Amino acid sequence: MTTTTAPARTAAPATTTGAGRRRRRPFRLGGALLYVVLIVIAVIYIFPFLIDISTSFKTETDATNDPLGLLPPTWSVAAYTYLFANSDFPIWFVNSAVVTVAVTTGRTLFDSAAGYALARLRFGGRNALYAGFIAVMAVPGVVLLIPKFLVINQLGMFDSYSGMIVPLFADAAGVFIMKNFFESIPVAVEEAARIDGAGTLRTFWSVILPMARPALVTIVILSFQGSWNELAHFIVSTSSPDLYTLTKGVATLSSGAIGSAKRYPVQLGAAAIMTIPVAILFIAFQRRITNTASGAVKE
Amino acid sequence: MQRRTTRIAAGIAAAASVLALTACGSGFSGSGSSGSTASGGTGGLTSSKSALTVLIGSSGDAETAAVKSAVADWSQTSGTKATVQAASNLPQQLSQGFAAKKPADVFYLGSDTFASYAKQGDLLAYGDQLKNKSDYYPSLVTNFTYQGRFTCAPKDFSTLQLEINTDMWKAAGLTDSDVPTTWDQLATVAKKLTKGKVAGLVTSNEYQRLGAFMVQAGGNLTNDANTKSTVDSAANVKALTYVQDGLKAGWWKFTKDVGAGWGGEAFGKQEAAMTIEGNWIAGAMTTDYPKVHYKVVPLPAGPAGKGTLQFTNCWGIAADSKNQAAALKLVEQLTTAKDQLAFAKAFGVMPSIQSAASDWKSAFPQFAPFLDAASYAKGVPTSVGSADVVTDLNSKMAALKTADIKSLLATEQKNLSAVVPG
Amino acid sequence: MTSATARVPVRRHMAGIRRGQAASGYLFTAPAVIVLVVFLVIPIFMALWVSFSDWGGRGSPFASGVHFVGLKNYGALTGGGGLAEQDFGTALRNNLWFVILVVPTQTVIALLLAVLVNNRILKGRGFFRTAFYFPSVTSSVAITVLWYFLFNPTGAVNQLLGAVGLHGPNWPADASGVLHDLLSLVGLRTGPGFLVNGSFLGVTWWDWLSGPSVGMMIIITMVVFTTSGTFMLLFIAALQNLSQEVEEAAMVDGATAWQRFRLVTLPQLRTTLFTVLTLGLIGTWQVFDQVFVGSQGDPGKTTLTPAYLSYVAGFQNQDWGQAAAIAFILFAIIVFFTLVQRWVLRERGVSRRRMRRNGFDRNDSGEYAAADRLLTAAAVAGAVQNRDSSGGSL
């Protein structure tokens, strides 16, 4: 039983080594200066988002004439009314949600299964496969814009949900993260399960995966954020307006056709709403996210 | 050593899968050959029960609604289902559709890009099968003729003229007799109208506006038959020098310099006393800037007389459409005088057929200068690749105020010569 | 450390229950492998073929009417004096300046933020970390929309500049190069003859030296704003790994904070610094989203990037062969930087012979684990950061 607690500890190393250890040092003038500097920088980082929100509640004239004010001179929800009542915004939102949930589910399953196999199971060509994953990770995404369209098109998946979702299951980095995680789990637990007569699949599903929760959370965060914010792939894989995602839809708002002036409150309102789900995820898993990279760098 | 073999193995595996894909790819292409025979213009149109998709590059909700209602009417009488889609990025959606072999059946096509699609065999050349073939303006038919074949029916057209803010005009002490008819007069009134934040004349820096002055000076980017590049002609130099003088004197400003997206925006926000736009400006003024009073007058004549640019779209029909016969019928309906006048009312275009001209003029007397220009307006280059050259020219003309006009035009002459067939 | 000791008995035991594992192994990896092969490996080979063909974008590129045209597509980009060459040269120029400005700036800011936030007596570290990192998780589309609003000619940025008495430029429309602007301040408005007359890829040497345009500065500041948080996390992680003893010894020796940072901390951060620089280089060569949403190459083609040019060539102009060729040249540039990184790291750490001898055997030595950790970090940062480039899945 003692072994089951071990992985949890390895999973969140930053808390045990970094933040946990404190050093005493006298508070000096430099300390006050540090706070001033940090607060100034924090304001610079946060201010744009505040402007975004306040502008979305302004009238179009106020948005142009008073771009800095954080309180709208006249409060207006016209931008939001337009987005939800007179545009395809709700469709975009639903599409983004569908794709994100599907991609996140798929990636989590695929990554953990492959990661587990690469870490634990012995089979011919394992090293070659692993090398392949690493090589594939080095391929820059933007190079794939055109080729991906060609393949999706060739497979008859163009302009469909499957064309939007399935290619995004490809996630070598996730496999990599999962493999490293599984290697850090002691084998004893699996062995106990095996001796009880459980097959590989059952061991994986009911013993390994529950233990892998911290790493799974990492994968969920990365794929949620990755697919919610994805633009290029949806540009190449779809064309019908029914399949627009938030990223693609909001991109069209900003490049308005001739005869339409720039409607800043509408654009910024849309930008604000599309940030909310990621912001919620971010706040919910804030600790985990800021430790994601830390966990990766450390063993 | 071990790593090298694995890499080779991976390469072989990948190559094998590509081959597999190739095989299934050629299977795909077999089905498409029927489309290419139809594009041979033999009159053998494909016909089926399949519904039509109409892809439009809409200027806004008014246009989308008008096309939707016209197409719905046709569906009802013909019994063939048809849906209208407003593209957010027409060229991209067309390209993807053609590559996927599931293009829209009927779609908007600009005269500047139509040739590149025609060249790939994407389009059904159906012009000669149109019942009202002889009713279209001849210059529009020329625009949509590729390698001697009248390919697609002109949808409508637009021309550029001068719009004047009448309140500012009066405030500057100008009267109807001051309406400029020469370049010098234009400069004079524009100087009078330039005050504080208001510039006398604001236009975009594109050839699609400034080109009108090239025509007035007797030039254009190509000759009328689109067979020879004439970018570096003396007339064009004269035209751009005139614009440059205006920019230097301050009575002419580019939209980007006043932070506007297009001339109509600067004009509507009253940052410009005059602008040069086409008939599409009417809709925007009514909906976005109803309080601004303005009138449309012909552009002044240049050294070579009157001149302006015309723009046009056609109704393309895909070579891969499964129901070309129905598509042709739909296009014939959409180009009738009745439908075109309805479009004109909804979003300010001008009918592409001569028989609708008088009705249009009596419906929109205040915009008569636009339609009058049909007799003397010139088109934009249409050869494959010329749109890229125009884009490049536009990007260079952004700095026209300080540019060396001759070398600017010489570069583009070289670029355009490379793509103009003659 | 704990895992390393646990692994030895594991191996021995594993040998005993190896039966049936091969089947499961293939079963477990199959989904991920198939997806990667179909949507990553095959596309690359398909595009490679297209880049050597005259496929015009109608139907399959493997149809009988499509011909092999050799290096024609590549040739049009790298020579011939046409518009294609000019555009490609311009796009490379723009992106090069983008890289030169963004990579050092984001690295320095990220390191600075990490050092500030890593202070152990600091209260509210979580808040500051969150604030600095938040821009990194938001969508590039949302940020681009916001940034172009802030930088419009009468927008927030110019109002702030106006408040301190400066007249801000017309950011989105100003195509003049920043370096050219600076030179014109000292009266140098046209370049010397040898720079104006010579050219490379259709762009004169003088224009290569223009610096990023004022319009490009919008995208530059935006990308620095969104990526510095990501890289800050990598630096924080590395800082927390540093040995405390050395720094404490230095403190006892009476070294100032700056000396400690420069002589003790910085050398220990070398690996991370290198990772951040390389990831930065790889990411910045792929700018696409911001151009697609914000500028479409304007003003005056000065924000055209190879990635966006490739998209336009293919999806708008139906010049698929050339589009694919641009993508592969870009690929070559990025692979080059990746290889340079590998090479430098290898020189420094793991002995080459040893690495080769052991291949990917995990139980070899700590050095492999170090390289492995680095790759994981790269993977995470890359996944986090991919929204800043094209968004393509890793």
Quick summary:
The complex is a heterotrimer of chains A (299), B (422) and C (394). Chain A is mainly α.
How would you characterize the overall build of this protein?
The complex is a heterotrimer of chains A (about 300), B (about 425) and C (about 400). Chain A is mostly helical and about 300 residues long. Helix content of chain A is about 70%, strand content about 0%. Chain B is an alpha/beta fold and about 425 residues long. Chain B has 2 domains: about 45-160 and about 310-375, 3-Layer(aba) Sandwich (D-Maltodextrin-Binding Protein, domain 2); about 160-310 and about 380-420, Periplasmic binding protein-like II (D-Maltodextrin-Binding Protein, domain 2, 3-Layer(aba) Sandwich). In chain B, about 45% of the residues lie in helices and about 15% in strands. In chain B, the strands form 2 sheets. In chain B, strands 1, 2, 3, 6, 7, 8, 9, 10, 11 and 12 form a 10-stranded mixed sheet that branches. Chain B is globular, with a radius of gyration of 24 Å. Chain C is mostly helical. Chain C has helices at about 1-15, 20-50, 70-80, 85-115, 125-135, 140-150, 155-165, 180-185, 195, 205-210, 215-240, 245-250, 255-270, 270-285, 290-295, 305-315, 320-350, 350-360, 365-385, and strands at about 200, 205. In chain C, strand 1 and strand 2 (about 205) form a beta hairpin. The longest helix of chain C is centred in the first third of the chain and has 35 residues, at about 85-115. Residues about 1-15, about 350-375 and about 380-394 of chain C have low confidence and may be disordered. The chains are: A mainly alpha (about 300), B alpha/beta (about 425), C mainly alpha (about 400). At the A-C interface, helix 2, helix 3, helix 4, helix 6 and helix 7 of A face helix 1, helix 2, helix 4, helix 5 and helix 6 of C.
